[in-house]
Amino acid sequence: xxxxxxxxxxxxxxxxxxxxxxxxxxxxxxxxxxxxxxxxxxxxxxxxxxxxxxxxxxxxxxxxxxxxxxxxxxxxxxxxxxxxxxxxxxxxxxxxxxxxxxxxxxxxxxxxxxxxxxxxxxxxxxxxxxxxxxxxxxxxxxxxxxxxxxxxxxxxxxxxxxxxxxxxxxxxxxxxxxxxxxxxxxxxxxxxxxxxxxxxxxxxxxxxxxxxxxxxxxxxxxxxxxxxxxxxxxxxxxxxxxxxxxxxxxxxxxxxxxxxxxxxxxxxxxxxxxxxxxxxxxxxxxxxxxxxxxxxxxxx
Length: 300
Prior knowledge:
By secondary structure, the chain is mainly alpha-helical. The protein has one domain. Helices cover 76% and strands 0% of the residues. Helix 2 (37-58) packs across helix 3 and helix 2 (37-58) packs across helix 10 (217-244). The longest helix has 28 residues, at 217-244. The N and C termini lie far apart (42 Å). The mean pLDDT is 84.
């Protein structure tokens, strides 16, 4: 049987982070209506990591990891999964899933600014236009009167922006970090570490734990999809892409994720979006386009 070419794997991986991750906003929103957010994330990543290690063992992948790789995996797991995902899910208690996806679409803007600070990369004209549009789009999103009068919604918005910042830094960091070469195994270590940290955080905050057997069928299905497709499939694809293409290209999932999330939120949960939110989305995504479509500098 012929192995898939690297190009076809990259295409498949992009489809995974575009469509599957777009649906995870809905799945997390469904789950967090019944389950505490940190407990939810801990269970999701613990089960996913065990399945990943079992599959890796069957496929005879090496599970060896150096001390440096373990420390890097712990840092990346915290940025991506403990803070970037766990706190994000918590914030979904206060805002719609589609709106949360729109806020998350600012990731390329954060990635660009971090690369400017960390790698001292100069901003091109297109990048500056993208940053300006991104700031305008963010302002339009969070300046709506119905949001300003709701303190819990404002808190949710603020925390999501900090999650996006953490996720963006993790994306820049992991592209150069020493982590296990096998993307599947690397994902497994990040998730097992994150699940333990999330469980400790959940217990320290006094979240109530429950058996999966007591969850409603709707939440059970949502968690099953989050574990198999969202965690094992899409997150492995994400780690793979960070080592194959530029960080900014991986961040282009911000184009598609909000559209998928908004459609599913409207179709399944009857979520509504104001005209100002739709205009903000158009401005924001145009800014993302300018940021990620700029010309690459060719090293001399």
